[in-house]
Amino acid sequence: MKDFVIPGQTGAPAFSDRDHGTPARAGAPVTLTIDGFPVTVPEGTSVLRAAALAGIGIPKLCATESLEAWGSCRLCLVEIEGRRGTPASCTTPVAEGMVVRTQTDTLRRLRRGVMELYISDHPLDCLTCAANGDCELQDMAGAVGLRDVRYEAPPEAPLANHFLRAHAGAPNPDWRPVDDSNPYFAYDPSKCIVCSRCVRACEEVQGTFALTIEGRGFASRVSAGTAADDFLHSDCVSCGACVQACPTATLTEKSVIAIGTPERKVVTTCAYCGVGCSFEAELRGDQVVRMTPWKHGKANRGHSCVKGRFAWGYATHPDRILSPMIREAIDQPWRQVSWDEAIGFAAARLRAIQAEHGPRSIGGITSSRCTNEETYLVQKMIRSVFGNNNTDTCARVCHSPTGYGLKQTFGTSAGTQDFDSVEQADVVIVMGANPTDGHPVFASRLKRRLRQGARLIVIDPRRIDLVRTPHVEAAHHLALRPGTNVAVVTAMAHVIVTEGLANEAFLRERCDWDEYLAYAEFVSDPRHSPEATEALTGVPASELRAAARLYATGGNGAIYYGLGVTEHSQGSTTVMGIANLAMLTGNIGRPGVGVNPLRGQNNVQGSCDMGSFPHELPGYRHVSDPAARAIFESVWGTPIDPEPGLRIPNMLDAAIAGTFKGIYIQGEDILQSDPDTRHVAAGLAAMDCVIVQDLFLNETANYAHVFLPGCTFLEKDGTFTNAERRINRVRKVMQPLSGLADWEVTMRLANAMGAGWTYTHPSQIMDEIAATTPSFAGVSYERLEELGSVQWPCNEAAPEGTPIMHVEGFVRGKGRLIVTEYVPTDERTGPRFPLLLTTGRILSQYNVGAQTRRTANTVWHMEDVLEIHPHDAEVRGIKEGDWVRLASRSGETSLRATLTDRVAPGVVYTTFHHPVTQANVVTTDFSDWATNCPEYKVTAVQVSLSNGPSDWQRDYAAQAEAARRILPAAE
Amino acid sequence: MDTGRLVRMANQIATFFASQPGGRGAEETAAHLRAFWDPRMREALFAHLDAGGEGLSPLAREAAERLRHPA
Ligand code: SF4
Ligand code: SF4
Ligand code: SF4
Ligand code: FES
């Protein structure tokens, strides 16, 4: 929408909100004069943009900076010396020595004429319009000095128009009602000026192609899908790009219609996925009116997805628990108490456990949803106040193999690129990831590159949307059997090495040559050839060969991967195999290439960086390293245990064994998100003190003794680190509803146990991180204010951060190629469990769904469903929509089935967004060999018809209901 | 600790290092256990070793022994 400048109010005042009309260009400098002022801009820049850069605003309607110029409104006309007529400045590129006039009598007259035509077919109800004060049409009417509209028609024979419901007593055939089918925005056709900004946004920015302009001339109008479709039933994925682009009130957020236009805004970071989009929280007082993507955000470049853009209503959902609560035992109802009482109760219990069972009998889990500062504090409390290393984080269940695998091969566990890098990729491998659902804004950026001609290779058991979507088609889809990643990756390496496609110069210079030779010998063995492994992996050898050749020879090769790589018993090995492919082909250390883990949660990267793992201090330094310990011991003033602590699954095992009795869990719902629910429940039930800090009474809280209310990202200051290592600021826009920000709660608990901490602002915590962690040495809130965001390592050598890693050499020195022997998982199909279950997620819901289930996003995903191939369904008598029982050796659940050939025969697929489904009742306790990351992606199952929820689901629901009772507050 | 699980985990680790060239599988497996396993897990593994070490692969067993009596 229109420029919205309130000086001094945005989080980063150095970043201008001005819409320059057309996209920036890179090119040789060109100098021209505009209204007598000399302006120098890159070649290819439009005259409109050049003028805007010089501070001259040429009126415009159909142009906006995020879209290529279209040239339809004719409002941006200018005069150019030596050229005839009045060209549109948005479509006219600058030329050396050009002399432009933006304001002459002719231009004024022409522009007024244009505006008059627009306004003659537009309702004049500005005072009651939701966009009043935030409408470019209104602004332009002012800018061109429109004073009257001469197309006044006699009342008995009105002019044809789109905005009157009826005229001359008859219904107006050209009028259309408001389409408010989308829960978050409305489309009011009567206000549309057919500038097609929305259509172009859907194509260019989002890449969904859901909108078209139907009809021609006067009859033309915006349409979502076919004429019969409304927005909700079209292909629209509710990303909001069209709403953002619309210059009028035609496409408007319903929250703006309900509340009014915002009066201030604060730049902050989305708290959903690892893309880490920057947003402006636009507010009235402390009420959020809307979240709009911030164009200076370097991860998202002004784009967003439905979650960050619209699904923030959970922040004020009535289910939020705002008062601390305690109970003696988990069969009792909760008792609401003061913060002091809750903290005192928790601290006393934890200390009592340690007195009886020893210092290592308690621990904690940091949250990948919380800020870096909060995560740092939790691990600090565990290490320096609890006095052990029993800290872990939800990254255990997603990207821990990335940490291990990339550290072994490259020397550091981080992704190698920034997101901008994809703009220079020529061949992209997407493996075990579903970006259009899991990382939507990255997917949009990737699709844009693919439309420009980059080639795509998808390696995934399921036909994800990217395989074929408007104007994008994968060159190869290797639909492997779940659990055979290592075999496929090794076969690709076999092709590259045996066909002489390896980049020997790179390998000699950058990698350990002897290790390469051993590796080359290993992969060259005929048993690793695609022909030999085809029977195992299900991937046709010719297809695999073609894909390997394309990656090795197609130019810049970039690999993006997700949990379909890591969540396997050989997750770490596959990560190493991916790193091997990049090294073999020299696809590392420059823009357009690299190895890029797509992180699940907003701050998975940060929580790993901040020392959440039981063997690593912040900055990935092993606890057994005395020098690393000494740094923290001197700052913290306490000794640090040199022994590694327990990982989440180990904690649960130790709890069942009776040696682990107390846990502090910040912002994670392990009962729902971790595998083998029964085992998790048994572990939690065996503990004497479970402390849950969260927004809602989550599933884990059913087993908790202390509940500490958490707060949303809107209620606190801090930083998140996204999948490209980018540290983004989170800014407080409202006071914590419970009275305390999450970091304050941790500090209170630590202090109740004797810590004596005195932080008054998260910036002080960041200063401590910078002082102790070399890769963060240059990070401070001031620096972030200046730069907007920064990618670590940020230190003296790289004061502005590091967009691309391993440029000169690998962090570990020489890159290491590691032999990747395929080991079949112990999880095998057999007569009892003949199908393989794999899991994933969908766009509109987020992980365990605690947030998104509490928003209108449920219109897109009411329940988890099981995808099953029609052939497998038929032999079981299953029809579309039937309730089916899904059973594994761990347990069983039931849900509805949907028949689709997106999954191969023998494979079934579901999401895990809803607690009633309890998909993790079915997943097993098998895990990655190196990191214990659970094997979510492969479970042998059987599917059969059922007639409703399983016994387990019913028992679980009953237990959950009992465990959630809250006593009325004592008067 | 559930020894069955520990044995399975130790074997998985040993299987990986067994596949690596250089013949240092036992050493590497022991180092991995040392770096990533909490002391009580290692103790439980040793106790299992004392009880005969059933189920441990030869390399996992060698690693466990090496870990317990570092040279
Ligand atoms: S919300 Fe996004 S996907 Fe839907 S029509 Fe608008 S731009 Fe297209
Ligand atoms: S809906 Fe808005 S952006 Fe789309 S054509 Fe109409 S006025 Fe332009
Ligand atoms: S969920 Fe991810 S892609 Fe969507 S807005 Fe948030 S950070 Fe961006
Ligand atoms: S802004 Fe240039 S033609 Fe519309």
Written description of the protein model:
The complex is a heterodimer of chains A (971) and B (71). Chain A is 29% helix and 16% strand. With 971 residues, chain A is an alpha/beta fold. Chain A has 5 domains: 29-143, Ubiquitin-like (UB roll) (Roll), CATH 3.10.20; 166-316, 2-Layer Sandwich (Alpha-Beta Plaits); 329-396 and 603-791, Rossmann fold (3-Layer(aba) Sandwich); 400-597, Dimethylsulfoxide Reductase, domain 2, CATH 3.40.228.10; 835-963, Barwin-like endoglucanases, CATH 2.40.40.20. Chain A has a 7-stranded mixed β-sheet with strand order 15-14-29-28-27-16-17. Chain A has a 6-stranded mixed barrel with strand order 33-37-34-36-35-38. In chain A, α8 (339-357) crosses α25 (742-752), α9 crosses α26 and α13 runs antiparallel to α16 (530-537). The two termini of chain A are 50 Å apart. Chain B is an all-alpha fold and 71 residues long. Chain B has one domain (3-68). Chain B is built from 4 helices and no strands. The radius of gyration of chain B is 11 Å and the shape is globular. The mean pLDDT of chain B is 88. The A-B interface holds A 360, 389-390, 518, 522, 569, 572-573, 614-615, 622, 624, 643-647, 650, 653-654, 656-657, 659, 818-819, 821, 823, 826, 925, 927, 929-932 and B 1-2, 5, 8-9, 12-13, 15-16, 19-22, 32, 35-41, 44. The complex binds iron/sulfur cluster (3 copies) and FE2/S2 (inorganic) cluster (FES). Residues 60-63, 71-76, 88, 90 of chain A line the site of FE2/S2 (inorganic) cluster.
